Amino acid sequence: MEDRKLTVRAVERALDILLCFTQDNDYDLSLTEISAKIGLHKSTVHRLLTTLEEKGFLQRDEGTDKYRLGIRIWELSTHLPTLNEPAVLLLPAMERLRDRLGETVSLYLRDNLERVRIQAVQSRQAIRRVAQIGARLPLSVGASSKVLAAYAPPEVQVRLLADPAWPETVDRSQYLEQLKEITRCGYATSFEEREPGAAAVAVPIAGRAGGVVAALSLSGPVSRLSRETLEEYAVILAEAAAEMGLMMG
């Protein structure tokens, strides 16, 4: 039983190492950086890194102590099912929306108490909002976060508001009022909630069964996206989201 616990713990630690590379701009990391991120001693991390490197899940840059994701990761990704995958299925519709409105369009799914950007189509304008695919963000701030939280089951909202990571700058009672307003009007907006100078509008995408399965958002600089503009775009996004919901089945 003890050997099994040790084996499971080693697997968890190895996965924690791989997950270090999902954070923004962390394309290569040193032993010291990885050790600090997951809170393990360097000797333990080094043994795990060696195993992951031998199996091809990580590779080490020659002449340095920097590690990056290995070829095995990409081999695994090629076997992901693409049929009816929202990120693949909705991409053409997202591109048409970007071309029509001129701003960055993103697609988010809720994963527990976070949202994950699974697809993004960047604006072609010189000054634009750049959205990184795979980014994980909290549900406490941002238009897409509020949409996903507003249509989440009540128990999820309870856990969200009780989360120790809840930001002190966000008033819980006001947040709940915002969620009620979102379900009433069908969209959410944000102005510099998460990033200075950025504004966004988001709408829910409902599947044929009726439940909300994703959030569709448009974002850009506040210099181009006034409150009035976002309200106009919300209507267009809602129409696109309705079509996307039918496509997703």
From TrEMBL:
Q: Which Gene3D superfamilies match?
A: 3.30.450.40, Winged helix-like DNA-binding domain superfamily/Winged helix DNA-binding domain
Signal peptide span: none
Q: Which SUPFAM superfamilies match?
A: GAF domain-like, Winged helix' DNA-binding domain
Q: Which Pfam families match?
A: HTH_IclR, IclR_C
InterPro entries from the UniProt entry: GAF-like_dom_sf (IPR029016), HTH_MetabolicPath_Reg (IPR050707), Tscrpt_reg_IclR_C (IPR014757), Tscrpt_reg_IclR_N (IPR005471), WH-like_DNA-bd_sf (IPR036388), WH_DNA-bd_sf (IPR036390)
User: Which UniProt keyword terms apply here?
Assistant: DNA-binding, Transcription, Transcription regulation
| Ranges where the HTH iclR-type domain occurs | 8-71
- The lineage's top-level taxon is Bacteria
Statement: the UniProt record of this protein carries the keyword Transcription = yes
The chain positions of domain IclR-ED read 72-249
Could you identify this protein by its name?
A: IclR family transcriptional regulator
Q: State the organism named in the record.
A: Paenibacillus tritici
Q: What is the lineage of its organism?
A: Bacteria, Bacillati, Bacillota, Bacilli, Bacillales
